[in-house]
Amino acid sequence: MRRLIPAIAAALLLPAAALAQVATPSIYASGQPEPSSPRDLGMLVTYRTATPNLSTALFPTNASGQSNTRRQLPIANLIDPTCIKRLRVVLPAWHQKSTAPAEENVGAGVTSHNALERVWNDGTPVEITWGGAATLTYVPGTTHFSDAIVGPFTSRTLGWRSYQTWPSGTLVSGSAPLYAARGEYVNGGGTRTDATMVAGNPGQAPGNGFGYGPLGGVAHVSGTCSVPHALAIFGDSIVRAAGDNGTFANGGDPATGLAGYLERALGGDYPVVNVGQFGSQWSNLATNAQAGRNTALLPFVDRIVVELGTNEATGNVTTWRQRALDAWLVLRSIHPSAKMAQFTITPQVSLKSGATVYAPANQDNTTTGGGRFVVGGSVDLGNEWLRDGAPFDTATKAVAEIGATGATIARVGAAGHPLNLVVDVAGFVTTGRNTNIWRDGLLYSAAWAGDGIHPSDDGHAAIAAWLRALPAWQAFLAGRFEPMRVITR
Length: 489
Hints:
Blueprint: H1 6-12, E1 41-44, E2 57-59, E3 66-74, E4 84-92, E5 94-96, E6 103-105, E7 111-117, E8 125-127, E9 135-137, E10 143-145, E11 149-150, E12 157-165, E13 182-186, E14 192-196, E15 209-211, E16 216-221, E17 231-235, H2 261-266, E18 272-274, H3 282-286, H4 290-294, E19 303-307, H5 317-334, E20 339-343, E21 350-351, E22 363-364, H6 378-387, E23 392-393, E24 398-399, E25 409-410, E26 421-423, H7 425-429, H8 457-469, H9 471-477
Parallel strand pairs: 17-18, 17-19, 19-20, 20-26
Antiparallel strand pairs: 1-16, 2-15, 3-12, 4-10, 4-11, 4-16, 5-6, 7-8, 7-9, 7-12, 13-14, 21-22, 23-24, 23-25
Helix pairs in contact: 5-6
């Protein structure tokens, strides 16, 4: 069934064609029944917690290279868990880390035996199967979807239990993990322990090592329930929450456990998959092999947020803009109907000689990023292009100049343009339009000395508060989940 929803299209300034339902490959496990009702939706229902990355956990191991891990898989606050009819767990055979390359595949021969508790700390574990088998053997680089787990579900926090084993030295190639994480694990005696977990390579040093937790959960949700939009966030270290709570380790808001200004702004209310990476660029989405893994959950969301551009290593503004457009078009080709927003690019500065605090008068933007952040540089002119609606020629797929007009020139929100919204975060955080100097108190705090590019915990909190109150952002999140695929048989 293909249908248009003119009222929603008008309210959200979404091109009508983008709301047409499109056919996609089957997303359901072999042997599992597909939904029989068009009101039975497949969507992301979980969100990332303060643990830096749901696809990476660290836990003690024994000398045989075996370990148990116990974690949480939270359902978004605005979703009534009783609405979930069937849930599939998504487990990636790759992880993220701080050193290049930003992602790395699990090694060959690693297996996992998993269970899910319907009610955290209190429910009966339900064995998770993969194509009917109790044990999953990871395929390096693959994102695995479990067989469906039938409801009812009564808690917004599900328990994840995993027993994993690997041949010596095969889990990773040996480089450092992204962060040391904090969470629960089950030791050899079955006792839950809350501990800070130490980084290490399980193949080299039994006692500490990588473990793989879920990237998220996708579900069939009853069509009678009201469910919020689900989001995929593509960005760099800023959306990975670097600087929040005074550390690169995503400490986040101690009251909520949410890390980074985007997750703080969303408040745990919306299902989110955050695939931001340290050092990521638009070109990672358009050409990099990481793109396939990073977009694995894209069919299960209906809102896309792009916070990229800071690391785009080019001083040529036309190249900078074209890379942005190419990345948006890739995302649009995967999900033709999702609404998509791009944030303007925040500055990178250094400290002037003798200065110790990143107050505005102490910031220097003339040498950072190879000169990209100087007034009149590629980031400056790139942001002005975004504010002009990111014009491009729909016939040639080439970027157009600021102010360009013509029958084939499209801007944000118009038919043929991949974006529906530009959010001017740079305009909020800077001392003035295109100064590329951070306002006072956003780059440093009592917990964070600052590094010239990542907001402090105070900065993340301030941006989150501004974003939550922004009418255009509120409209972006208004309404009910809009499925990419509606089954009508």
